[in-house]
């Protein structure tokens, strides 16, 4: 598989520090976004730990089945959770810290995503923008129960309350998503500092623009800041240039 990628994180307009982290390994086709919480730099610690440990632990090899890679993704996110949780117990100033984690691995002809929290993954294909992940959040639960519409959820006072995160308890269960990829697909990973400020139609319009990847990332962050920039904003874009034949080989990349 051949792809190009770009990423950027921004503090936003309101916050004084940036608790988001991201990891972009083009050589391995691995991408992580983590949105930390906890204050006093603890959120930054949690998000950095999650991104780093997931990358250390998730190392699929040629010949692995999808089931084996999915199991390794779960194990990697659980390892990050355990490390963050232990640190909350051993360091009083880190108590209460945690982080979201959205992890994407590019496999031959497809993607594997592991997710905890409300950072999101989207796929733009043929002009249609699809949200690949589902938030672990209070408002998402209310939408699922029919008590809120998706539009109401965006402006709800509890819109930022998440129901699952890395590091808040001894163990965590990530959701997994696997799907096919095609040439010209564009995948977006984003913290809620972006998706909470910009609705899906504006996201689609920016992603559909003729800009290169890095200017697109800049445009997304600029748009979120123009809407108020209430939170840290992190964006990763991956464009699929060529899809490999189904030989079981691991992906290669161009930057």
Q: What is the CATH class name?
A: Alpha Beta
Strand content: 25-35%
CATH architecture descriptor text: 4-Layer Sandwich
From the spread of the alpha carbons, the general shape counts as: globular
**Tally of contiguous helical segments:** 7
Ends: how far apart? 13 Å
The major β-sheet equals: 6 strands, antiparallel
CATH topology: Phosphatase 2c, domain 1
Number of beta strands: 11
Report the radius of gyration as a whole number of Å: 17 Å
Mean pLDDT: 93
Number of domains: 1
Uncertain residue ranges: 248-255
Could you characterize the architecture of this molecule?
This protein is α+β, with helices and mostly antiparallel strands. Helices cover 31% and strands 27% of the residues. The protein has a single domain, classed as PPM-type phosphatase domain (Phosphatase 2c, domain 1). The protein has 7 helices and 11 strands. Strands 2, 3, 4, 5, 6 and 9 form a 6-stranded antiparallel sheet that branches. A 5-stranded antiparallel sheet has the order 1-11-10-7-8. The longest helix has 25 residues, at 66-90. Strand 5 (101-107) and strand 6 form a beta hairpin. The two termini are 13 Å apart.
Q: In a few lines, what is going on in this structure?
A:
With 255 residues, the protein is of the alpha+beta class.
């Amino acid at each position: 598989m051949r792809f190009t990628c770009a990423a950027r994180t921004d503090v936003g307009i309101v916050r004084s520090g940036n608790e988001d982290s991201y990891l972009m390994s083009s050589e391995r086709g691995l991408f992580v976004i983590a949105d930390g919480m906890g204050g006093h730099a603890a959120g930054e610690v949690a998000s950095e730990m999650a991104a780093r440990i997931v990358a250390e632990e998730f190392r699929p090899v040629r010949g692995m089945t999808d089931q084996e890679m999915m199991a390794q993704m779960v194990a990697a996110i659980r390892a990050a959770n355990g490390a963050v949780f232990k640190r909350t117990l051993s360091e009083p100033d880190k108590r209460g810290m945690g982080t979201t984690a959205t992890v994407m691995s590019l496999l031959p002809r497809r993607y594997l995503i592991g997710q905890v929290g409300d950072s999101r993954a989207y796929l733009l294909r043929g002009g249609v923008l699809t949200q690949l992940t589902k938030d672990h959040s209070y408002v998402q639960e209310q939408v699922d129960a029919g008590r809120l519409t998706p539009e109401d959820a965006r402006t709800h006072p509890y819109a930022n309350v998440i129901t699952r995160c890395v590091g808040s308890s001894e163990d965590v269960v990530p959701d997994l998503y696997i799907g096919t990829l095609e040439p010209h697909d564009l995948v977006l990973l984003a913290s809620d500092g972006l998706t909470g400020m910009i609705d899906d139609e504006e996201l689609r319009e920016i992603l559909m623009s003729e800009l290169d990847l890095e200017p697109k990332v800049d445009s997304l962050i600029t748009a979120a800041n123009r809407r108020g920039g209430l939170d840290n904003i992190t964006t990763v874009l991956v464009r699929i240039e060529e899809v490999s034949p189904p030989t079981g080989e691991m992906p290669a990349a161009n930057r």
